[in-house]
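A favour between colleagues. Tell me how you read the following sequence-structure pair.

===
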Amino acid sequence: MRKIYINGNIYTFNLQKPHVQSVVIENGRFVDMGETDEIILQWNRPSTVVIDLEGFTVTPGLIDSHLHLSMIADQSMNLNLTGVTSKQEMLDRIKERAAQLQPNQWLIGGGWDEHLFTNGSIPTLTELDHVAPANPLLISRICQHAAIVNSKALEYSHYQPNILLPEGGSVVLDETTNQPTGLFLDTAINLIKQHIPDHPYESWKNAMRNTIMYAMERGLTSVHSNDPLYLGGLEQTWKIYDELLNKEQLGLRTNLLINHEFFDELRELGMYTGYGNDTLQIGAVKIFADGAFGKRTALLSEPYSDKPNHFGEAMYSQEQLYEIIKKARNLDMPVAVHTIGDQALKNILDLLDRFPPVSYRDRLIHTQVVNDYLIKRLINRSRTVDIQPRFVASDFPWVEKRLGKKRIQYSYNWRTLIEAGVQCAGGSDSPIEPIDPILGIHAAVTRKKPGEIHQGYQPNQKLSMVQAFQLFTEFAAYPTNEEDQKGTIARGKLADMTVFSADPFQMKDADELLPMKIVMTIIGGEIKYRRNV
């Protein structure tokens, strides 16, 4: 069926035709574009469906290059502490939730960020025992690299003082008693998590359906999501997505990053990078090289400025990382590696240099501390960098204490990366940050939180509005080798578009982005979300 979208203010990001009024779509792809009169004259027939865009602004469909849909879905089924501003509020919310549960039922939650607390520190083991005495609990920090637990959780998990900790993880002990404070970091969290019963399949499926719909309401047409660790393995992950996207045809195009722990399943199921279709596809092999700045587990080449002699933590040794990457290469698959600290990034680049590239690009995720030497090594057609502009809004100003005045100058330096020629793509890392791509675009342009009144953190790193939108459209197609399929509005490409209530490229102040609404989300020419006016 032929469809024509007319009377739009359409920015194509296609240099041959950068601005048009109408597009023609057949079989889910663009076949022509131009002024409304000429398009109607040439393409309109009795069987053609004509949709009036009523002058609204249109861009290529928005893409999030790095998030975790399963974690968002999980959050919707558990206690969500995102935005909590004090320890007491957090404890009150936990107590309220515990009262709703049966004794011995696990209390799971997440989203807390102590940097938002106006008073009080992180809840202690004793305080957690007081508000949830009958329930084992695990509450993850917003970064997912730290979690707090109570005594009941330690009991249910058979925790012992001499327990063998997994590499890359730690249990924070009280300096006086040498007993657990309740704070677990990185891989040590799995000592508790492995004892938590999983959600039933239908609960996961329903929560994932709602999450996918919500993503499209935010204007997203494609996402790159990392899920097998949450969704019970590769096979179940694929089954849920296949049922929702291919059978129910919800719409959201999804590229799945597969954790390296599932190499065996990849082989058994005969899956590989590129396996699937235009809607659902297997992506790169996901690896964690380090942690995060919040609890000082991101791996740095020099000590943390606010904790001398502490460099962070490597999740794996270089020998272990080499073997993981080797296994990926044996499957002819690229890797997507979490590298927040500069030493973690250098370690991975050193290893990647030892392997020939594969047909799909390797991905470096986050890359928040990048000096000139590392930038030169990232300028490579076989490598892309997944950045999260919203991290600037969430991490500043406290991260300046972690990194110091000198090192902060080459951190979160998105503009420097782009202008140097590094292939960058924009994402949210949701639920660590809100899934709304407009908030990511706002942070890229303003370098501050909504509502803050200043020139922005590192204002020399501000992106133009066009650059910010490119991060979430044109540039975000590169990590999955889909630059010939999506990212711009051009003949032969997938007909994905996002429709806005205002024109971002005519705004005098980037804060005007904040009240802007998503009018329509169009995927393959089909309206998958339409705002009720």
